[in-house]
Write a structure and sequence with these properties.
The structure is a homodimer. By secondary structure, chain A is of the alpha/beta class. Chain A has 9 helices and 10 strands. The structure holds a DNA duplex.
DNA sequence: AGGCACTCGTGCACACGTTCACAAAGCCCA
DNA sequence: TGGGCTTTGTGAACGTGTGCACGAGTGCCT
């Protein structure tokens, strides 16, 4: 399920607050969801809570990390050293969460050699070397739209099996490759859609608590 | 539906290639989906294709833009001038797609005054002024996690009704505010999950054509 | 020890989204 | 004009995911 990462983040935060035990009710509240859904998700995971008490936070964190394959780091390689590539490399949040940046590559020789967030930009011809040396399985495409398909093919050719794609194109890759897409323009257009609906229906609006934060999934 | 933006992009591309008419089959192929799904989505939209021929691209583009509220620009304001905020402001793809950056604000006086992608960074106290002057309805949160909630509250206070949130937190806002979340770490963790499954099942992999690119929705 | 309050796990019904299959409708050509 | 080919639009089946409700197990207090 795509909700496990969310649970993991919430639970990690709770762990830092030294909360040892948490109920499905509370957990549901913290991630804006239904208590039954939380319980069902966690039961699918197979891990057990204790009735009458709740879930042991530390144990649950361990189980989810295990299920998500986060027991070890997954180095990633970023293709494209433009604005977005720079931002991603410099973000720093990746390394902390188990996804160290093994390298940043670009096809433009003028960009090679500059340093982003402690990582030197290398030429895309070195991609195979980087991937093999660090056993990289995950590639991030941060190139312009026109270069995304070629970037994907190069990543696949050197053995990358999962791709996070920021370019607004549908990549053509073998079925065995897992691709996830983040399209910022699409997100904005969805917001625009809701704005437009608010404007045209012109009705009054209910003001309530916080719940339901649409996010990426499926 | 969250798929309309995808259709719009594909159709716009086809329009530039001077394709005047397109069938649901072809359209489905281009966006990696099912033909029946495409037809149902478009019929929900109410717009009509012609049987035996297909859909008129230009008309469909107009209809979708209309449905999504893209008949006029939606200026956005970016809160947070860190790496991500810089990348977003400098991206340029926003303006082209109808979301010009009305302003970038940050709470750090040291960052105020620098120029990102043609937009000068201003102090967050000027937020209200920017929003009212440019009639901004959409805010983008590109702050660190710890500042995201405050950023959201400030945006809501000055009248922003839609928020695109890049910080990995569930924002607490009134129900009337539309929030969409993009969490890069979650995306990577989902990829990690699939990598881990590949590794443990250890089975052989089918190699097929391109179809099915998971993306943000719901 | 017994009762009570609490919370997990889960069967079941419901709603939604997806897919199939087919009739209606349009175009082209003889 | 009529028949055949193509493609839309949509009703119906299917599968999935969601939410409710309740039994079962646990801890606490008397």
């Amino acid at each position: 399920m795509a909700r496990l990462p969310v649970y993991l983040r919430i639970l990690s935060e709770q762990a830092e607050l030294e909360v040892e035990c948490i109920s499905s009710d509370r957990l549901a509240e913290l991630c804006g969801a239904n208590a039954a859904k939380v319980r069902k998700d966690l039961s699918y995971l197979g891990s057990y809570g204790t009735r009458g008490v709740g879930y042991e936070v530390a144990y649950l964190v361990y189980q989810i990390r295990r299920e998500l394959g986060l027991t070890h780091d997954w180095p990633v390689v970023i293709v494209g050293a433009g604005h977005l590539g720079q931002a991603l490399a410099g973000y720093g949040g990746f390394g902390e969460r188990g996804f160290p940046v093994a390298g940043v590559v670009d096809i433009d020789p003028a960009k090679v050699g500059s340093v982003l967030g402690g990582v030197r930009v290398r030429h895309i011809d070195e991609l195979a070397q980087i991937v093999q040396a660090r056993r990289v399985n995950i590639g991030v495409i941060a190139t312009p739209t026109s270069a995304a398909q070629e970037a994907a093919e190069r990543l696949v050719a050197v053995g990358v099996t999962s791709i996070l794609n920021f370019a607004p194109v549908v990549l053509s890759v073998p079925r065995s490759i897992e691709v996830r897409k983040v399209d910022l323009a699409v997100e904005l257009q969805i917001l625009s859609y809701h704005e437009q609906r608010k404007a045209t229906t012109g009705g009054l609006r209910s003001v309530g608590g916080a719940a339901g934060q649409r996010s990426a999934s499926a």
